[in-house]
Give the backbone structure.
Amino acid sequence: MLPSRILAAATRLFTGVRCLAASPHGEGPAIYYANHTSHLDTLVIWSALPAEQRVLTSPAAAEDYWSTSALRRYVANEIFRAVLIPREGIKRDNNPLDRLSKCLEGGRSILIFPEGTRRTDGEVGPFKSGLYHLARRFPHLPLVPVFLDNLARVLPKGTLLPVPIIVQAHFCAPIHFDEKEAKQAFLDRAREAMLKH
Amino acid sequence: MDYETKLLLSVVVGILVIASVVGFILAKNAKTDGAKKTIANMNARTRSWWVMASVFGSMLLLGPTFTTVLFAMISFLAMREFITLNKTDRADHEVLFWAFFIFLPLNYLLVGMRWYGLFTILIPVYAFIFIPFRRVLTGETKNFLISTSKIQWALLVCVYSVSHIPMLLTLPLKDYAGENAKLLFFFVFTAQLSDVMQYVWGKIFGKRPVAPQVSPNKTLEGTIGGIGTTVAISTSLWWATPFAVWQAALMALLICLAGFFGGLVMSAIKRDLGAKDWGASIAGHGGFMDRIDSLCFAAPLFFHVCRFFFGTGADAPPPEWVLRMLGR
């Protein structure tokens, strides 16, 4: 799709992020999870993926933000093919995990931010349990940690206009779910894997 | 394209063909691991040179607008590397936006408009004053002088200085109307050849370090041999410039010396920041800044020496249409 290709190329030109030569985890879908530092995180990871993986990947995005105008809905649905996630008023019938699972069942990859919120200090915060529940539902899928560096300088929290600073998106070695592992141990291991970039 | 330009481009192609053939032969005969590594790096550099020379050559063919846009891109990429390594604070965000998206395009717009008077003061006067004014609005006093200086330097080195290269195309010179592209060629060719020759002489004969604390790879033998060879080659191109033979020799020497010190200054900044290269965009060379560090300081010097000794002075008043708009 032409608008997607142009957007990805423009993002790479602006931030200096490189497009990966090959899929970071081989064939098929995966669960990408990254540290959350700015509003550009999704765009940067999406632009760094090889084109054939990019069209197969749906990032998770906040429903209250991305469904409020026609342009945002177009970008979320047509360009990113995002999974829209409610942030408040979560009930049984709009459970974010169900929406993400449905997407994975359709053979697509997803991108999530397990910290749940943006950090401004450059550190990686503790992970919420969503990643664990997803991994348990899809134990055979590779979990690919992505460490984002320098993005908070491009678009700091509370600013509207980005500045061109060279950023890095490190795709780390994939990890796998282990059914014998307790929830917290798994989340700690997943976080460690992201820090080994 | 005139005959002289074709000849100049053939000189570049000739040098690159020789470098590629020599590199190919050396790579076949390399024995030790150290030699193999050096030659692999040298050949990566040569390959990048083919790409850079093609871009540069197409610039001479496609004219001033394309040249100006290309150098605006180079300034953008160089300033991005400069600001990435020079950590800035949250309070600098808005100032940086002005530097990248207002002052940089405005500066190159003035180059395109051939408005010498405003071009010369836009960054040294207006941007210099505006940056601390905008920063003080944030109310953040921490690192105030350091941060504003970093951004002022970034604009001066990466944008203002570099833009003197396309500005050479607008410089009215005695008996040289319409030939300025060859002057631009002479400048860039000399500065880059000097880098290459210093590297080659240094690799072959280099023993005594010339600035061990700043740039350990630079040697006395490399510097003298490299600059000597470059001055000889560049002087032999005097026929394409507005200079007499001896003037061409002095101009080439000026470019080489300013390039040498410019390279040292940029190395000192890099070393202070704890980095080896400014980036990794050009294979074998490092970042864009690593490739243009010797041009940064030489460009305004060369421009103004040319203007002082060979200029007609016709660029001093603002362009006609500006005067008309002001009703003068």
User: Anything to note?
Assistant: The mean pLDDT of chain A is 89. The beta strands of chain A are 31-34, 57-62, 83-85, 109-112, 143-149, 168-171.
